[in-house]
Write the structure tokens for this entry.
Amino acid sequence: MTRPRCSLISLPDTPWYHLVNRCVRRAFLCGHDTFTGQDYEHRRAWVESRIRELASVFAIDVAAYAVMSNHYHVVVRVDADCAAGWSADEVLRRWSQLFTGPVLVQHYLVPTLRAQMGDAEIDKVLEFVETYRARLFDVSWYMRVLNESIARQANAEDGVTGRFWEGRFKSQALLDEQALLAVMAYVDLNPIRAGIAESPEDSAHTSIAVRLTEMQAAAAHVVMAAVAVAGAPPDASPVPTAHDVPLDLPRRDGRGFVDARAQAVRLPTEATVPATVPATVPSAVPSAVPSAGFDVGLSNSVGAVQWDHMRGDCAASGAPILSGGLQPERVLASLPEARLMPFDPTGQFARAIPFGLEEYFDLVDTMGRVAHPKKRGAVPHHLPPILQRLGIDARAFIESVDTFFGSFAQAVGTPASLAKLACTRQQRAMRGMASARKMLCAH
């Protein structure tokens, strides 16, 4: 039976979620369609960029993703505490990056116009703020904007109207570390198990490919730096390591990590909002934000302060008085791409993936060797230590690569975690208990 989204996404239970959406009729609208001969491979890049662009606006972090020919997967962490710490101006600034907003909000963002507003008008704006704040960490609003903006581009390209996505996105709550690791590996292995890639580094439009590219770039930088200082005098600066790559590092404020690019998005000025606004107001378009280069390697392992933790808001159009219209594509495309969540093997940094980067690479590489259709079912001779430490049965995981999502349905976790969630939801049992006993109880 279909359950309301509010019961499927419950932050008190877990901030981690696995999200999936498919193209209408599961057609190849984002890749090469062998039946029609049409090639829409470039749309996979659209989806990949938009996933990370919206992460720079919402209080939602991306841990893993894979964009396939007719569907995509995203693993996210919702950070409600971050959104709760934003000021009213910050909430409205972030909201205006993606939505035009009502006239009152546009006036409020301009100091000289705000001074002319009455108490009742300001109180109304502050009501809007709390509504927007709640949407800034709402997974449904994140997915709504992602899907709507991609559908608009695709329909415009094809010269058609109507549905592009199959419908309501699917979500799975990830209840513990075992579930998070299993689902991240499942997502990153998607192109390999589908037979369209031979190795993780060849898996285009996936988070694992991005992480490997960043690590290789960091290693290359270290080698070049070592060569450059080889003939330097004894008192010269030491050779940098992968974590010392020169970057515009973010500064930390009381609410989280702030990047210089985020500061480049300015509040509207008097030039953007006239003193007398007509009944239909054009959007106050925020300044285009230059996309800076990624911190090679830094998004992969924590150096906590070194992580560019850009955040923002975003939501899709609700009642017109609250949201206004979604900004045009030229504005959405100017958003910077947020970095992927970093790894922290100590587990002490809440806003990081609680594993080591190298052991995760080892896991994906090992499983990738036996997840390909031509090798399906084989158990590798070398088993990554992380599997034994977290109690994940390698053979069961390999056997479940084609049925993983269906086996667990609404939530993924150990039997104990699923039983606890069933009790919280007042359900007799949670689907996936048998799979959890088989795969996540190797101890």
